[in-house]
Amino acid sequence: MAHCSCIISGLLLFLLLLQSSQSESNVENSNNNNYKNNVIKTEVFLSPKFVLEPGLVSNKYYYNIDFPRGHIAIKSFNAEIVDENGNPIPLHETYLHHWVLQRYYRQINGSDFILVKNNGLCGTGLTQYFGLGAETRKTETYIPDPYGIEAGGNIPTAGYEEGWFLNVHAIDTRGAHDRLACTECGCDLYNVTVDEYGVTVPRDYRGGVRCCHDGTRCPIREGIFFSGVAERSLYLRYTVKYVEWDPLIVPVKIYILDVCDVWTTVDGSSSGSAERHNCEVEYDIDRCPNSAANDGCVHTKTLSASLPSGGDVIYGVGHQHAGATGIALYGEGGRLICWSNPIYGTGEEAGNEAGYVVGMSTCYPKPGSLKISAGEKLTLVSNYSNAQSHTGVMGFFYLLIADSSPKSNPLLLYAPFDEVWKNSKLSDFVWPIVVFGVVVVVAVVVLVLKGRSGRGEDYEAML
User: I need a surface site. Which of 117, 141, 397, 421 has the fewest CB within 10 A?
Assistant: First the structure.
């Protein structure tokens, strides 16, 4: 009887373990299914209309634009210039110098607003969440799972609500004498000596956004004939992909590095932890003296800086202008973090315009495989061909970085099978053990009972 009681107790223990495992598995599957049901949503919007004609520049700010509301995780943001019929406009007709998406908090019953900056180093400028230019159509901005840019959430200041604004800078180069010069905003070409704020442009400022502000004009050829209407209405069509916020989503920080960043520490030295960054955004490139005989002339500009906090690199991409040959970010010891190369067009159609940078290559390291440490010395290297001179070029680098600490075991949702195997809980493997144990117990019970019933018959029942 004692043996039978022990066997029954063992059987009950295995059944309880089985029930516990099944319950835990059901809860985990429920959580996973809840996240997987949180499908990616896509919304397409148009900016307010802006009107261009040959040679004219539009550089406008649109506040309180249409944007997904609520607590969300942004997965991507893409944009392009289109006409009233939704047709994409090629760069050789309207050059998209840049678009910038900026988050802010606005006062509900007032006119005050608070800029919500990214995590970058620049003291002023380059505070945007997203921003590209001519390369926008062929530059990937998707943020992989389980990551996202958090927006919506709790507003830290009472009486305010979240808003977004766009800055769209476009130049109509139809009929221009020199399209490249128009896109590089040469001050002499535009005949500009005062910027949009009424400030006199310095004599050593040869070209850039200060000389092609809203309403300025780039010279066009006389007697130019247009098959259609010269003046036309255009829009920035932007596409937002997002999901509703979920505790399993890992938020990323946005960093923008500027190769023109001139920084010092607060005490004026060049080393220390308290730094002041002045991101100058643009720079000029002089023509290589031997360019006529050597098309391999390359101009290199570098920046050394560090981030206040580290983490896993999730995404990286550069921003450069025509003439660029690539931009790279290195960590300490010369380890390559990301190299972003320009993609040049070869045709006439929108997205493949010959001679223009129509895309930038991106970096998507395997999550957890590439880290940047807080305070690690980073080196940004921006390369341009200087077979000819350039004005107002740029060398930015966008980084998305996530906290390296584990959060809700996202490997169970997203990682390859080998990672899931290494990181799974006991409940994933207890099933076969429990089933085997139950089979063993049942077999023992059957054998014992049969043995008891056959003892009076010289164990014949065992045969």
Answer: 421
